[in-house]
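Predict the 3D structure for this chain.
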Amino acid sequence: MQLKTYTEDMLPAVQAHYDECFNALGWGYEPNGRHADTLNVPKVYQKDGGEFWCLFDGAELVGAVGLRPLDERGSAELKRLYIKPSRQGEGFGKILFNTAIEFAKTAGFAKVYADTRRECAASRHMMEACGFKEIHRYNDNAYAELFFELHLKGGIQIIPAAQEHLNAVYALVCELEEHTLPREEFELVYSKNLLKPDIFYLLAIAEGVPVGFGTLHVQSLLHHYGGVAEIHELVVAKEHQGRGIGSRLWQSLREIAVQKNCNLLEVCCNRSRVQSHPFYEAQAMQCSHFKFTYYL
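Done. Predicted structure below.
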């Protein structure tokens, strides 16, 4: 058995796989309709921290599953877990299921959702056995009848920062600046900015503890003909770096910029923070400006 992440050359096998699986269930395969995501795996699944896996026995595709991030920060959805009809009962579903869940944990997702039909008893039993709890409808999938949610231990939640997070935010920003900031002045600015509609403060929570912080300021600039969003602070506590938390914060800040109809996302990063430059480049940001400062 070989478990592989999806590549474009697998598309014919994936199409044939779902065609066989859906027709065996009497549903029919609609690649240009409600199953269009199976033709656009990189766009639907392999972005913003998601992934798609194919399980092969030699050249035969015996199963597949996808994990796609949801708009709700810190959540993902388990999708398209189907096993070739003639190979069911061999444990392949559990392999794919566990792969997706372990990936979700490593990627820092706090929750995983899934939906299914009442007739799919095996799918339902697997989810219940793995700790999924049945919940109310969470999506607009007209074909789904049952909805499930799994809370992941060790997952990362991205939430709006509030006044009660002041101490944690202060500690994180002092760590970013590598010196102790004036507490009274910091608290005044923090409290004022929480009330401003174009300033957004996000906090990353791991195991109930704040471990990361990001800020976004949105403004309209003449030379950009509209909205520009700028990241002013983005920090992850040293002991939690390497868990993808920075990327999750960046993605959440980018989502806000998109929602606010900004046409540009910027960040100003000190030249001395050389360890941060590759991070922003990995988010497909380009170094395009010089910044000049004059202290008053």
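The first strand starts at residue 2 and ends at 5.
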